[in-house]
Design brief:
392 residues, Heat Shock Protein 90, 3 domains, five-stranded mixed β-sheet, 53% helix
């Protein structure tokens, strides 16, 4: 510190005694590039509001406004600026008051420069550490946002692939039916023109036409429902729009859109939720939560071709909705259950597990929906998650 000026920390020194102020000011300016000086608490408070210093050194007893009065006003809205009190008084009254205000360090006058140097060195190190923590927290938040966005895109990609695959069957059946219908229309038209139409032939045509049209209608209807649900879920997954929606209907649409995933298994999903529950929230986040929970159950809860059941039970009161998610799979061993919400923790790395599913779910529920999630150990088997989310 003594050889090179500290350029990234601003220090404010408040002292009414001219001799003491000049001595400490000289000492400080040899170590800090930005040193502000004030003669009393009122001037110090004005300097604080103007420059927002990182460290404030102040005497206690001063005219117009004392150092404690100034510090108290600063601490009302600022809990981070380092406050160092100097005083010629050893009266415990001032020490207790300083502690109550939130003073960082209390130095007895005349100030020992070695002690002041050590105090400032520790204070600067703490400031750098706090800055580093803020920077790390910011980077972590940015990383979590990127992971959340990546999870959205991964879910959307799976949804697109699944819906595309699901559409192949009804569209293919419809095309085949319509192609066959076109052929029998040509045949009946030819027989009519050549005066070869018989009553039996015409009745057979009517029956087959009815069957083909019904088959085409049902398959086109299914394709339409798939596209409708896909559009609804896809738009919500790629946006963060808050809107009103009925939870039961929305979950039914979501489960329908996951048919491509569930039909490959012997797992059934049951939803116990009254139709009347209406939320003013973010449906896209609910889509991510339940998609990840169901995907986790399929990947981690059951062996290949194992039958199973997922139960989603939803209740509500005036302020919260409570969701209990339960599957009857192999469950989570007791030795790892404390780690399941940790990022990158997975027991299925060799089967494509990333360890992000539950971590993302927890982040969405805690940070985005201001709710909570807890794992409850079941009495027999499977997993139970209890989620509580504010209704508005």
């Amino acid at each position: 510190m003594e050889k090179k000026l500290i350029e990234d920390i601003t220090l404010l020194y408040v002292e009414d005694d001219e001799m003491a102020r000049e001595e400490i000011e000289f000492f400080l300016k040899r170590r800090f590039k930005y040193v502000l000086i004030a003669n009393n608490g009122k001037e110090g408070l004005e300097q604080y509001h103007k420059s927002k210093p990182d460290i404030i050194i102040t005497d206690i007893q001063m005219p117009i406004m004392t150092g404690l009065e100034m510090s108290k006003l600063i601490r009302q809205n600022d809990k981070t600026t380092a406050l160092i009190i100097t005083s010629a008084y050893s009266d415990m009254k001032f020490l207790h008051e300083s502690i109550d205000i939130g003073i960082n360090t209390y130095l007895i006058k005349p100030v020992d420069l070695t002690q002041l140097y050590c105090t400032l060195k520790i204070t600067c190190e703490n400031i750098y550490l706090e800055r580093k923590n803020k920077e790390t927290k910011k980077e972590l938040n940015e990383t979590q946002e990127l992971l959340l966005e990546a999870d959205k895109m991964a879910n959307l990609g799976s949804l697109v692939a699944g819906v595309t695959h699901e559409l192949n069957t009804p569209i293919g059946v419809s095309l085949t039916s319509l192609s066959h219908f076109s052929d029998i229309v040509k045949e009946i038209n030819k027989n009519y023109k050549e005066d070869k139409m018989t009553q039996d032939g015409f009745e057979a045509f009517l029956k087959e036409s009815s069957e083909l049209s019904e088959m085409s209608y049902l398959n086109i209807k299914r394709a339409s429902e798939l596209i409708k649900n896909f559009k609804s879920i896809a738009v919500d997954q790629t946006s963060e729009i808050k809107r009103e929606f009925k939870l039961k209907s929305y979950l039914d649409e979501l489960i329908f859109s996951l048919t491509y995933l569930l039909k490959k298994t012997k797992i059934k999903v049951n939803i116990d939720c009254i139709e009347e529950i209406q939320l003013n929230s973010y449906p896209g986040y609910f889509s991510q939560i339940f998609t990840n929970l169901i995907t986790n159950s399929i990947k981690h809860g059951y062996e290949d071709n194992q039958s199973g059941q997922i139960d989603i039970t939803i209740s509500t009161d005036d302020n919260f909705i409570t969701i209990v998610y339960k599957d009857d799979g192999i469950g989570i061993s007791e030795d790892i259950e404390n780690n399941i919400f940790n990022a990158f923790f997975t027991t299925k790395e060799n089967r494509g597990g990333t360890g992000l599913g539950l971590n993302i779910i927890k982040d969405i529920i805690n940070a985005k929906l201001k709710g909570s999630i807890e794992y409850i150990r079941p009495e027999d088997k499977g997993v139970i998650f209890k989620i509580q989310i504010p209704k508005d």
